[in-house]
């Protein structure tokens, strides 16, 4: 068992180091989805104008879902989440939500 400990530690550390990479990849995919499907109608200033910007995470999610439906994009849940992550990282900076236990 002692011989396995360094390998277990190494595997756990590798997993923890990959989490930011996965989050970064998701945000990058969100950026690409947003740029390919959304920027033709609105520019980046939309997200900073007080009367138009989302005021809560739920409101931002609702806008993403609404417009992906209006445009018949058929985005999966993970794609919607990636666009949310991109917009939040880029413009909104809402606190990251942690799942309830």
Structurally, the number of domains stands at 1
Unreliable residue stretches: none
**Topology as a string of helices (H) and strands (E):** HHH
Q: How does the overall form come out from the CA principal axes?
A: globular
Helix content: 55-70%
Number of helices: 3
Main sheet?
Answer: none
Proportion of beta-strand residues:
under 5%
Features of this protein?
globular; mainly alpha; 101 residues
Account of the protein in words:
The protein has 101 residues and is mainly alpha-helical. The mean pLDDT is 77. The chain has helices at residues 5-37, 57-70, 77-92. The protein has one domain (5-92). The protein is built from 3 helices and no strands.
Q: Gist?
A:
The chain is mostly helical and 101 residues long. It is built from 3 helices and no strands. Helix 1 crosses helix 3 (77-92).
Strand-helix topology:
Layout: H1 5-37, H2 57-70, H3 77-92
